[in-house]
Specification:
The complex is a heterodimer of chains A (117) and B (110). Chain A has 117 residues and is an all-beta fold. In chain A, the strands form two sheets. In chain A, strands 2, 4, 5, 6, 9, 10 and 11 form a seven-stranded mixed beta sheet that branches. Chain A has a four-stranded antiparallel beta sheet with strand order 1-3-8-7, with no helix packed on it. In chain B, the strands form two sheets. In chain B, strands 2, 4, 5, 9, 10 and 11 form a six-stranded mixed beta sheet that branches. Classes of the chains: A mainly beta (117), B mainly beta (110). Chains A and B meet through strand 4, strand 5, strand 9 and strand 10 of A and strand 4, strand 5, strand 9 and strand 10 of B.
Chain lengths: 117, 110
């Protein structure tokens, strides 16, 4: 059973270009979460999605960032017109449907390291 | 005030020693608590959940004090492979979002 798969592992973009980060959840998982880790900082929640629905996007910057989790295919985190401050590690995690008493933490993918030059 | 606060360290500890990390959280409604470890340039990996009754997994012991909003992790007989950053993580009630501390860096010295 493959874990959470993210690609690409490394992505270099020039300022003003678009970055598309992909995340395939573990088999049977219907919840996907995106986190960002800036250099020397902790992970910060960005967005929580279920298939075809954005459940919580309270951590997403208001502009240039969007996320989707279509019925078929991976979840995509899209950053338009990237700036140097977007350089970070972007981690995706997935979990099965969970209730208040059945949450055991979730498993992260190996991340995408975005460098904006 | 940060939602989850940890001493950033670094902690440089000789092999075989016991080391303790502490963490405090600000939201009294927080429901679930975890320790993750993160190796350099890798993803965070779940180390253990933390329960009010305290729990142990081999050389690792975690404790939660809800009244003080305080979480701890104790590592006994430390190994070189324990060198990593340890992340204190909290989940709110009815909320799938995890809030991470900035981590405590541990280096075990031979």
């Amino acid at each position: 059973n493959a874990g959470v798969m993210q690609n690409p592992r490394h992505l270099v973009r020039r300022r003003g270009q678009e970055a598309r980060l992909r995340c395939s959840p573990m088999k049977g998982h219907s919840h996907v979460y995106w986190y960002r880790q800036l250099p020397e900082e902790g992970l910060k929640f960005m967005v929580y999605l279920q298939k075809e629905n954005i459940i919580d996007e309270s951590g997403m910057p208001k502009e240039r960032f969007s996320a989707e989790f279509p019925k078929e295919g991976p979840s995509i985190l899209r950053i338009q017109q990237v700036v140097r401050g977007d350089s970070a590690a972007y981690f995706c995690a997935s979990s099965p449907a969970a209730g208040p008493t059945t949450f055991y933490g979730y498993t992260f993918g190996s991340g995408t390291r975005l460098t904006v030059v | 005030r940060k939602e989850v606060e940890q001493d950033p360290g670094p902690f440089n500890v000789p092999e075989g020693a016991t080391v303790a990390f502490n963490c405090t959280y600000s939201n009294s409604a927080s429901q679930s608590f975890f320790w993750y470890r993160q190796d350099c340039r890798k993803e965070p990996k779940l180390l253990m959940s933390v329960y009010s009754s305290g729990n142990e997994d081999g050389r690792f012991t975690a404790q939660l004090n809800r009244a003080s909003q305080y979480i701890s992790l104790l590592i006994r007989d430390s190994k070189l492979s324990d060198s990593a950053t340890y992340l204190c993580v909290v989940r709110g009630f009815g909320n799938e979002k995890l809030t991470f501390g900035t981590g405590t860096r541990l280096t075990i010295i031979p």
